[in-house]
Amino acid sequence: MSESKKTVALVGSAHNESLRAMQAFQTEHDAEFLLIGNTKETREKAQALGIEIEGLRIIDASDDIESCKLAAHAAMDGSVQVLMKGSVHTADFLRAILDKEYGLLPEGSLLSHVARLVLPWYHKQLLLTDAAVSIVPDLDKKVQIIANAIAVAHNIGIPQPKVALVCPVETVNPRIVSTTDASQIVFLQKNTAVFEDAVIEGPFGLDVALSVQAARVKGIAGEVPGDADILVFGNIDAANATFKAFLSAPDVISAGILVGAKLPVVLTSRSESMHTRVESINMALTVSG
Fold first, then answer.
1. Could you give the dihedral angle defined by the CA atoms of residues 156, 160, 161 and 162, in that order, rounded to the nearest 10 degrees?
2. CATH architecture of the domain with range 7-105+261-287
3. Checking CA distances to 9, which of 46, 56, 133, 199 falls within 20 to 30 Å?
4. Domain extents for the chain?
5. Over the stretch 143-164, which tens digit does the pLDDT of each residue have?
């Protein structure tokens, strides 16, 4: 491995879309790839796709579980800086990352998903969390999810991200957990050192978080309304639906990674575009430090 390059481990390398994403990424960016999987099948698929992999290191594995274990070991010893899921099953992939034997998830840390969006109508890049991992996070998990997203923001060049706690309404309602959690998170941000270098406000409706005009009409002041860098949702239902609604609009650029482990993880869905796959690899390498 070149000392100047970071390495991405493609786990389950006999996978057409991942091999195409690797090739597309390497035409525009500088990184090494370590292929982990069935060597014979990987070479056959690469040859069929017209992708040259002779210069790449391939670690042979007999099945998904072995591939995931080998990748986790490579991450543990620092041989790779990003893990990328290929053909392996998601459950096997995540099980290896979470296995205490490899120490990839620090004590007290939480794995969460952070998406990056460039929306044609919004004036800057936007992060959204958590649309893929935490189903109904409690207050403690929300604190960790927010901390993960803030760390991503810092790593992609946002020194003091503005965090919007997105809820159905802008007032605290004891029957709406997202609003009571938002109130407590804002209190923590103002009175403790839990969050570093960020402005956190809410509860806000999504319109208020993204529109100065909406905030003005509703009489809501603050640093975040209309200028949010990070959108935090109360559960996976709201986050995932919003994320996919954004993706359905034309000309949207997106990426997504898992964070919270000792290295970022690229875990794209089967329906993701090639551009999203490439952008996700780039995001992960940027966040990897």
1. -170
2. 3-Layer(aba) Sandwich (3.40)
3. 133
4. 7-105+261-287, 114-248
5. 999 999 999 999 999 999 999 9
